[in-house]
Design brief:
single chain; about 500 residues; alpha/beta; Urease, subunit C, domain 1; TIM Barrel; 2 domains; 7-stranded mixed β-sheet; 4-stranded parallel β-sheet; 16 strands; about 25% helix; about 20% strand
Length: about 500
């Protein structure tokens, strides 16, 4: 691949139309068709003009371990912090980080200041997106309640007319079952989903880490799995009841982290309830032993019988304990729960991987562990984390790409109002459509470092670690969103 292939030898700048781009003998992945293999693409005037699948001698030497082309990724859960917390992230820096991670569409949460509970705040987010110059599409959820205080419903109808893609009080759960039922009913009438952060707050007051062996050894207050399981049970029960009054009601449960909660969703889906869920890269790949200084992947923390290993006995504690970049909500769980997240991704219980990208300032993170703000800056490392699963033989490449594209799109499409929007488009390699692509070198490796992250948030436990899958190029809606400085040196 060469930058000379774009715009007649003069590559476009960020935000500009890609006049011409050709890529020969790459590995194409189309999760809509369920097809992957050697191929070539041509983009002309921002449109994916041709997709040519290669066979026979023409395909010789092309493997899935080289340059890969996939549809642009869709993140259905991220925090860009604007308005109100621009010292941690802005829509502009968040969009740049998203493009670096291969994302072309991002849905941001409403826990801004002020909360996104009325159309005026939505207008601020949209104005910031337009001013950023990035072609990454920034969508937004409206708050369920005024000020996210859990007392009364927000201006849901006005927010729907303004174009929100759903409602959430994320950062916190919808406070009461009564308010949740009202929100599900009203959102259903508007053709939009409610996205809940499932947490029983009475069980998590003062909690710092997953309630288990690691927390006990480190002296951290336990955060029980029951807090998530009980909340998911409540939410599913409320949804089932609300469907009797509003059959268009939809519920999405975000960042699930426990085997018990995922099993409840699995059973609810089997019963035909309109509930979906996602898992995050960090709940898939990290475990609570990272708090003690381990840096092995989640699957490496299980023995041959599927039981959790003892990190102290195994001698894998290579980093300093209490790294505050690992403080998240919900907390990192044990390896058995992480394995359950992977199983849910593989069997379709969890339709999507959502980053829960949560950038924070140094001031908010470089404090005592229990006082640190929750969140990982993860939108730039999500692909590398999933490709680590692929390299280990734990996740097929097609499934990894689907979890970042068609899976999130299907969650969006479950909403009546967003079913025809760009967020819910099929996200395949569709000839004649505006090019929405990510090109990455699966064999290329990059080291996560503060200077390599375009997000303002450097709060990643992966800093210093090498990841597979260097993103070379991201094209969003036919326009250049990201290009690696050395992209012209990779591929054919």
């Amino acid at each position: 691949m060469s930058a000379d292939a774009m715009a007649g030898g003069q590559g476009p700048r960020i935000g500009e139309l890609v006049e011409r781009f050709e890529l020969e003998k790459a590995w194409l992945v189309d999760p809509v068709l369920g097809r992957e293999g050697p191929g070539e693409i041509v983009v002309v005037d921002g449109v994916l003009e041709s997709v040519n699948w290669l066979e026979g001698p023409e395909a010789a030497g092309v493997t899935d371990r080289g340059v890969v082309v996939a549809p642009g990724f869709l993140d259905i859960h991220a925090h860009f912090r604007e308005p109100g917390f621009e010292d941690a992230e802005t829509v502009a820096t968040g969009s740049a980080a998203a493009a670096h991670g291969g994302y072309t569409t991002v849905a941001v949460m409403p826990n801004t200041q002020p909360a996104l509970d009325e159309p005026g705040v939505l207008a601020l987010v949209r104005a910031a997106a337009a001013a950023s110059g990035s072609p990454v599409e920034v969508l937004a959820y409206g708050a369920v309640s005024v000020g996210r205080a859990g007392e009364q419903l927000s201006a849901m109808g006005e927010l729907a007319d303004g174009g929100v893609v759903g409602y959430s009080d994320d950062g916190a759960p919808v406070k009461t079952a009564k308010l949740l039922r009202s929100a599900i009913l009203y959102a259903g009438m508007l053709g939009l989903p409610v996205v809940d952060h499932p947490e029983e707050s009475e069980l998590t007051a003062g909690a710092e880490a997953h309630d288990g062996y690691v927390a006990s050894v480190l002296g951290l207050a336990g955060w029980p799995a029951a807090a998530e399981v009980q909340a998911v049970a409540r939410d599913i029960s409320v949804l089932a009841d609300a469907l009797g009054d509003e059959p268009r009601a939809r519920l999405h449960l975000t960042h699930l982290s426990t085997a018990g909660a995922l099993d409840l969703v699995r059973r609810a889906k089997a019963e035909g309830l309109p509930v979906t869920c996602d898992v995050t890269p960090h709940h898939l790949a990290f475990t609570d032993e990272w708090l003690a200084g381990s840096r092995r992947w989640s699957w490496e923390a299980l023995d041959s019988a599927g039981k959790a290993r003892d990190p102290w006995a195994d001698g894998v504690l290579i980093a300093a304990p209490y790294n505050t970049s690992l403080r998240v909500n919900p907390p990192l769980r044990g390896p058995i729960d992480a394995a359950a997240c992977l199983a849910a991704l593989l069997d379709g219980t969890a339709g999507a991987v959502a980053t829960d990208h949560a950038p924070h300032t140094v001031v908010d993170k470089e404090v005592e562990f229990g006082r640190a703000s929750n969140g990982i800056s993860g939108i730039e490392t999500a692909l590398g984390v999933l490709l680590s699963f692929v390299e280990a033989g734990k996740l097929p490449l097609m499934r990894a790409i689907a979890a970042l594209t068609t899976g999130p799109a299907s969650v969006m499409a479950a909403s009546v109002r967003t079913a025809s929007s760009t967020a819910a488009r099929p996200r395949g390699l569709t000839e004649g459509a505006a090019a929405d692509l990510v090109v990455f070198d699966r064999a290329g490796r990059w080291t996560v470092a503060p200077e390599s992250l375009l997000s303002k948030g450097k709060n990643s436990p992966l800093v210093g670690r090498e990841l597979p899958g260097q993103v070379l190029l991201t094209i969003a809606g036919g326009r250049l969103a990201y290009e690696a400085a050395d992209a012209g040196e990779s591929g054919d």
